[in-house]
Design brief:
Layout lengths: L1 E4 L18 E8 L2 E5 L1 H33 L12 H7 L10 E5 L5 E5 L9 H14 L4 E8 L5 E11 L7 H17 L13 H8 L7 E14 L4 E14 L1
Antiparallel strand pairs: 1-2, 2-3, 4-5, 4-9, 6-7, 8-9
Length: 252
């Protein structure tokens, strides 16, 4: 770009307006050896517009790559993936399955029965529950999933791939293992600012790094954690799960 004085009457490439006699024009090559002209303010707005367009193109390319990877690695949860309660009841040898949402009702001697419910807070998924109880009964712990870094030569982290770690290992391929993976991956997308934060006060890694300045170097990982887990009983002995969860970030 250059600056010159002229008495001609060219048109500004940005606003298509004319110039005052003797006004300073800012010029740029527009092809075939020809020059285009800008007002001072229009030049800044034009550059900003070009930068915005380039950024939109970059984001579009990133979105296309991410979409391809999501399809290739089956990333993304949908309601269609929720196991059917009817199928679980059939496996358990129960009779006719209630339509819609199901709940558990406590009976005499510790017996449990499955009943229909219209109350979302009492509803549960029988397959998720049975798998989680199996982990507790056989392993004496809660199910765990983590996306861990993969190390290559020289103990260098492979920034293109991560390792799915299930505890216990047999959770891999189950509906519980799958929903835990999808939730963990979504949390990582939130931490990188891929989506708007769903909880007031929750911030992405980029927002947190701005507090420390561009020269700071740090790394951290985030986990879903269970803060409190209880089972309440209503007056008619319907068991109501009460769960409070949180997200922890630990600097490494």
């Amino acid at each position: 770009l250059g600056s010159t004085l002229t008495t001609e009457e060219p048109v500004c490439l940005h606003c298509r307006g004319s110039f005052q006699l003797g006004e300073t024009l800012f010029t740029t090559l527009i092809g075939n050896g020809k020059h285009g002209y800008f007002h001072r303010g229009c030049l800044a707005r034009s550059v900003a517009k070009d930068m915005e367009g380039a950024e939109l193109d970059r984001l579009s390319d990133v979105k296309s790559v991410n979409l391809e990877r999501r399809q290739a690695f089956s990333i993304g949860w949908s309601a269609e993936a929720i196991p059917s309660n009817a199928a679980s009841l059939q496996k358990l040898g129960c009779g006719a399955a209630p339509r819609g949402m199901c709940c558990l009702v406590a009976g005499e001697g510790g017996a449990l029965t499955v009943a229909a419910t219209l109350e979302p807070s009492a509803a549960l998924n029988l397959e998720y529950l049975s798998i989680s109880l199996k982990v507790r009964r056989t392993e004496g712990r809660e199910p765990l999933f983590s996306l861990d870094p993969v190390f290559g030569e020289g103990n260098k982290i492979n920034d293109q791939m991560q390792l799915k770690r299930f505890e216990p290992e047999w959770l891999a391929g189950t509906s519980v293992g799958e929903v835990m993976f999808q939730a963990d991956y979504y949390l990582k997308e939130l931490s990188f600012g891929e989506y708007d934060q769903p909880v007031l006060g929750m911030r992405s890694a980029f927002e947190l790094s701005e507090d420390d300045g561009p020269e700071s170097e740090w790394s951290a990982r985030e986990w879903f954690v269970v803060r409190k887990a209880e089972v309440h009983a209503s007056e008619d002995q319907v068991l109501i799960p009460h769960l409070r969860m949180g997200v922890e970030a630990r600097e490494q």
